[in-house]
Amino acid sequence: MNELDNHTFRLAVAQFDQAAERMNLDLNLRERLKLPERSLIVSVPVRMDNGTVKVFTGYRVKHDSSRGPSKGGIRYHPDVNLGEVAALAMWMTWKCALAGLPYGGAKGGVQVAPEQLSRGELQRLTRRYAAEIFPLIGPDKDVPAPDVGTDAQVMAWIMDTYSQQMGFAVPGVVTGKPLSIGGSLGREEATGRGVVDVTLEAMKHLGVAVPTATVAVQGFGNVGSHTARIMQEAGAKVIAVSNKTGGLYNPKGLNIPDLLTRYRATGRQSLCDVKMGDAITNEELLALDCTILVPAALSEQITQDNAAKVRCRILAEGANGPTTLEADQILIDKGIFIIPDILANSGGVIVSYFEWVQDVQRFFWKAKDIQDRLHEIITDAFHRTLQFATTRQVTMRMAALMSGIDKVAQAHLARGLYP
């Protein structure tokens, strides 16, 4: 499994090993849960607009299905590789279990820079990728969703491609779809709203007043932009946001709705082109003096090289795996309250679950029902994790991992080993 030997997968396995050791997890189960249940690597040939054929590499990894269908996003990014996808699938398994969802973890992706493709090329890439992973996916087998570089339109193309093969509409094969074909209200903002819900609970726990709180958000895509907007609506002051090209800093606070409007007008290229604050780099943002820091970009942004510079009170991990093991210990020693990724960003998969249920039932809920149910599930998960951490005297990350892993382990023990 040399293809799995990359730093993100090593981080996921190291976290698992730490939790398994503390749990005294059965050695046989440790071996089963370290590696994915199934991994698929596909070639994705696409006819480009100029008539040439370019071949991209795609992946779909199912980590575990002991508790139900596997669930996980599809990302389009140049750095996608098997190790990263396998790590993300593992984290999805613990995330779903921690939230109490009847899912296992999966993840997929294509090694591509989507912004460099025309709409036609993107559609042809998506449909061919969907055709290649067709044997693995299905509403009762493995349910994809949007992730970095993908959106509702990409999900619509996957749903249509799958449905064409089946001969009838199968809306439940993906989540994060447009409303017109079975999508759910509240899905687009779900991850960001979940980040805010658990952050507000952490603030109550720590006695931090919302009006006095300052927020910095690294990553201004789907998760980061909604997190910033909803935190501002809750009464906090968002002082900095950034994307891959850099960001903006304004100690008096940024007007997020106005910023979003102007940013979209630039074609979502550079936040620095929006003259609403001082230009700031991603590294500088991570080192800002703030109440809440939300890394909502890619993995491993906070490392042993920059962790000592982090000056927040609460770190809410909107991204998957944004903090390395070495950085984790530095942050803990600094007294920073960490809301781990598998808890903080689980709002997306929770509302994806709602969408899947609505598709299966052919009965759709109101937006308020979705927000209320999301709040109930994710805040319950937060308080269970906090109680576990307090009782067992472990970190929030270790508590979340141990809780999720234990649920999956119990499912494996109940089902046994086949044959």
Task: Break the fold down into its secondary structure elements and pairings.
Layout: H1 7-23, H2 27-34, E1 38-47, E2 53-62, E3 70-77, H3 82-99, E4 104-111, H4 119-133, E5 142-146, H5 152-166, H6 190-206, E6 214-218, H7 222-234, E7 237-243, E8 246-249, H8 256-265, E9 278-280, H9 282-286, E10 292-295, E11 314-316, H10 325-333, E12 337-339, H11 341-344, H12 347-361, H13 367-392, H14 396-415
Parallel strand pairs: 3-4, 3-5, 6-7, 6-10, 10-11, 11-12
Antiparallel strand pairs: 1-2, 2-4, 7-8, 8-9
Helix pairs in contact: 1-3, 1-14, 3-14, 4-5, 6-7, 6-12, 6-13, 12-13, 13-14
What does this structure look like?
The longest helix has 26 residues, at 367-392. The protein is built from 14 helices and twelve strands. The protein has helices spanning 7-23, 27-34, 82-99, 119-133, 152-166, 190-206, 222-234, 256-265, 282-286, 325-333, 341-344, 347-361, 367-392, 396-415; strands at 38-47, 53-62, 70-77, 104-111, 142-146, 214-218, 237-243, 246-249, 278-280, 292-295, 314-316, 337-339. It is globular. The two termini are 24 Å apart. The model has no long low-confidence stretch (mean pLDDT 95). 53% of the residues are buried. It has 419 residues and is of the alpha/beta class. It has two domains: 2-16 and 23-171, 3-Layer(aba) Sandwich (Rossmann fold); 190-344, NAD(P)-binding Rossmann-like Domain (Rossmann fold), CATH 3.40.50. Strands 9-8-7-6-10-11-12 form a seven-stranded mixed β-sheet.
